[in-house]
Amino acid sequence: MKPQVKSQQTVKSNGISTSVKFGIKASGLHHILGILRDQLYSDKVLAVVREYSCNAVDAHTEAGVPDKPIEVTMPTRLKLEFKVRDFGPALNDKEIQEVYAFYGESTKRNSNDQIGMLGIGSKSAFAYGDNFVINSYIDGTKHIYNAYIDPSQLGQISKIGTQETKQKNGIEIVVPVKLGDIDEFSEKAQALFQWFKVRPNVSNAKFEYKDNATLFKGNGWRWVNNPDGSRYYKGDAVVVMGNIGYPIDKGNLEFKDDDGLYEMLTANLVLDMPIGDVEISASRENLQYTDYTRKNIYKKLELVKKELTGTIEGQFKDCETLFAAKQLWGTVFDTESSLYSLRNVLKDSLTWKPKSGREKTLSGSDIDCHSGGLQSNQHGNLIELHCFKKGYRASKFRAETDNWIRCKMDTVVIENDLGHRRGCMGRVLDLIVNQGKTVYLIDFKDKRPTAQFKNNTKARKLLKEKGLDCEVQKLSELPKIPLADFGYAANRSGGSAGSTKSSKHSTKEFTLNVEKLQNSGWGDAKSSVWDTTAVDLKNDSGVYVELDRFFIKGGVDTGRYDGENEPRRLNQLRADLKNNLDIDLPTLYGFKINSKALEKVRKSKKWTTLWDWVKTKTAEVIEEKKLSQKYANRTAALSVEQDFNWVCEKLYDNKSFIASLVEGDAKDIFTHIKYMRHDELGKKLDGIQALVSELNISIKLDIEPEHNIAELSQEVNERYSMLQHLRFGQWNWNSKEALPHITNYINIVDVCNSSGV
Asked: What predicted TM-score, i.e. pTM, was given to this entire model?
């Protein structure tokens, strides 16, 4: 990356007798290099992943294959190495000696096509550890170099050998990784590669990138859907330069009060900047907010605003009325929309032009029915406005006085031309309940049929000016539907009592709607995931649960699904069955308690409870996949591990440690645990165990673990009693020094006991 040319200053040196140039003495060199290694990067793991991955991408760019993925190998417990492999130009001995080994040397300063330029990143492994390996593949020969910190603290690169190879030309960097940092390397790599234009081919890990849907895009920018799917998500806009995402710190930018640019800097906005358009810190962890950087960010934001305004404005061209334009505005910039933060940015920029008339600025979606004399007239209100809503924790809709028409695509405005509101609910509930509309009802103050249109001319004119310039449906034109069809109970006078009662409450038999189950939320009615059905109790068969007020009654004494549980809990059970057993939830019937249907189902051999079905299926899967012995082994091994908090992965997974033990109970139990864990199937076996545990169901496999490690563990506790006072947290950080002492103690006990001492 080309560095920015700084303004030059000329200092006149009149009267100066002597001068000396700044430099670094050999005695202080190790101190300066130590600062570059240890203090430059605040996130040392990320530095290793970022610097070598970016160097590899640069190599592909230099080789003319920018679209070819680099290869990254993540560390594992068996192979504690982080590797980055490219297929670009390799380095010969001279290049290693003259460029790679020197801080500040770089071949990338004359190009804005490559990311690096500082000549520091290639040594970033020294910020994490004391050595790393450079493998250079040149025409069938692998040249191996070891870079390490020597006693002088300056560091050296030594060539340690060559090998014949069939590998393609390129560079491979190998960095030793500490056991406790495996997960951090994966987390940091996934977050970094999220922004890579060409994502690496990654081994030993499966990354799930958060590729949020792009709603709008333009010249070097994208406006994406909310990153975490939440309407409340707040975060920083990101500048992506050289495959690295840099969050924009709004506090380091200065905005005009009226430019609307500040509100654009949310997590929805991604700015793709060419290399060199913004300046970065020496560590490449943050942007440098120089005048140059600020200028280019402002310039890009103004471009985004202009292009975004034009793109969104184009959606309003087809709106035939101002009301339709307001409906579209309210939907596009709804509180739940990813574009909500833009409503204030674009409120003075978006325009709508009717087929005839002047262009209008779209500043919002609401129609104010309170001001302007509509509902605040000194001579009285010209109109009354009501919106049909559900009260707090209420199950019924009711007409509530309102002052605003909040326009969205589902907004419907109706004029009450009847002169009264009797029977109004029966006419509007179809729109609300069945069509999902938000209904506003306008009552003109003068309801005399003969004078209605004459005396309310002023009110109609005001409403049109405010945005209600469309044909408004008349209440009298809506069909009147009996309230009982919507579950409203009738009161003694024959009208609505106001309580909403779903017809499902009088039905006794249901089937689970899986699609509704997956999309249901905690605010939905418990009955919403159940469809009414008719069951032939004599001939039909199936799997069922018992329902009490649409709560699921558990079939076991304890457990997550016992007692009264929301039906949406079944969604987790459905996922567990699919992920752990690879089986689908069957057609599930629900029968209300105290119903005759349930009594018959309970007695029928053709019907089985969901809990018995899961128990049977789990046992079948274990048997079919020949997992019985391994399931029994792992269950026993994990159970023993809970009692042996000193028996941790550091011990049972350490082959050299086990091999160094003399024959005895300790060696036996470590060997057995290592084998009986069956880690190659650990995820599937643990998933089955979790499902069994959550449902509190007992699986009788009629098979015993291959080794009675439960009994052996008791003997180990007694035999090596001092180990009970050793805790994992006490020695984990210093395990290399602790392991020999643990080994010696165990061997002393076994040797002494075997010799009768």
From this structure: 0.53
